[in-house]
């Protein structure tokens, strides 16, 4: 895909469409169901910047007459697409709403809110999936409400999923 994204024969709009429809779903497959560590966030951020730099190419500095790569701020300004983390959070809240509406008798709901039984390992507790959901809903502005109650309202939860 590198040759396709760096080709001058294809317009930038088409390259962005290819990125959104082909590359992004493959890169984010299953990311809405797992917690993101700092290492995973950094690797996704690096991946997104590399792809956007391939799409937009280098910039020429007119004063010095040299080429340079685009900075992160310039990439965010050029690409009108959503940030990769906003896409993950949108998918996570959508999946959470679906899983919470399934009810307690289904296995997915048990995994969603269940507690691990047995002896806890030494050290700092891992960040749970439920903790990520609470942080996502706080960023949206619904931190006061219980996320389980919010997920039961399909219309309101669907509106929040469109970050």
The end-to-end span amounts to: 28 Å
Number of helices: 9
The residue-averaged pLDDT reads 78
In this structure, how is the largest beta sheet organized? Answer: 2 strands, antiparallel
Question: Fraction of residues in helices?
Answer: 55-70%
Lateral arrangement of strands in the main beta sheet: 1-2
What is the secondary structure topology, with strand pairs?
Blueprint: H1 2-5, H2 12-27, H3 38-56, E1 59-61, E2 66-68, H4 72-78, H5 84-101, H6 107-113, H7 129-140, H8 147-152, H9 154-161
Antiparallel strand pairs: 1-2
Could you explain the architecture of this structure?
The protein has helices at 2-5, 12-27, 38-56, 72-78, 84-101, 107-113, 129-140, 147-152, 154-161; strands at 59-61, 66-68. It is mostly helical. A two-stranded antiparallel ribbon has the order 1-2. Helix 2 (12-27) runs antiparallel to helix 3 (38-56) and helix 5 (84-101) packs antiparallel against helix 9.
Provide keyphrases for this structure:
163 residues, two-stranded antiparallel ribbon
Structure summarized in a few sentences:
With 163 residues, the chain is mainly alpha-helical. The chain has helices at 2-5, 12-27, 38-56, 72-78, 84-101, 107-113, 129-140, 147-152, 154-161; strands spanning 59-61, 66-68. It contains nine helices and two strands, in the order αααββαααααα.
